[in-house]
Amino acid sequence: MMEQDILLVDRMNDLAAHDPLYSFALDELLCRRTGRGGPAVCHIWRHPQAFILGAQDARLPYAREAMDWLESGGWPVVVRNSGGAAVPLDGGVVNLSLILPNASLQHASYRSDFERMSALIASALQYTGRKVEKGLIKGAYCPGDYDLSIEGVKFCGIAQRRQAKATVIQAFVVAEGSGGERAGFVRSFYDMASGGDDSLGHPLVVPGSTGSLEELAGLGPMAGFVFAEAVRSALASRLLLPGSTAWTEQSPLPEQDEIAAAVDMLRARYGAEE
């Protein structure tokens, strides 16, 4: 593999009241740039409060009623353009996006994208002495084969979005607070959106299936910032891409009007029907 710069876009402290699709739109634009020959990117971000749906969630028979319930409680709802299912975001959830050129993934399956993300997160947490395992955790929200867990309790889910020339791998990491409370919240959404019918194929969420790094890895009440710093250290140690050069923090980002246009595009293309 040729040497490759990794751009770090660190938005841990950006908790402005952006549209919930803002960070997904930024990923979309950065992915296009990477596909045109720009650097690989690691985008670290948080959102103060939003409920992110997968496309299948928005098709449940009472999804509109459930979304209205969420929004009446101060939880804006959007449908994302990557895979996966429902995820609540708040200040205690750290989101990672790896944006990689497809040229670096030649002759590899889509699973290699997930492997890179899981390897980065495992490397970041290695110093804790906790073993990070991957594999489906039954009863967790946003379930998948690349659930990341500690002692059988999930703390991270991974999804991806492929463009023609680059790919975004997105992970949510439950860092602070109660994973069980978040899981119970997601279960309430599904109970309402499904009308109580558990035969519709949606995740059947169990509160005890999900935990936070504060709970599972002993990172303390500032676990989000501790974890983000560990990710930065892993990137600086070149643990993401073999042969990669050191990351750099400075690079012009897309203009705000360009991001706003991308938000509008995502909402028009993927938004839930009224």
Share in β-strands: 15-25%
Q: Looking at the structure, what is the overall shape?
A: globular
Tally of DSSP β-strands: 10
Please name the fourth-level CATH homologous superfamily: Bira Bifunctional Protein, Domain 2
Q: Please mark out the parts with pLDDT under 50 across 5 or more consecutive residues, or reply none.
A: none
CA-based gyration radius: 18 Å
* Helicity, as a percent range: 25-40%
* CATH topology label: BirA Bifunctional Protein, domain 2
Q: Tell me which CATH architecture applies here.
A: 2-Layer Sandwich
Name the assembly state. single chain
Quickly give the structural class.
alpha+beta
The first-level CATH class is given as Alpha Beta
Count of separate structural domains = 1
* Main β-sheet description: 7 strands, mixed
pLDDT averaged over residues: 90
Query: How many angstroms separate the termini?
Result: 47 Å
- Can you count the helices? 7
Spatial strand sequence of the major β-sheet: 1-2-6-10-9-8-7
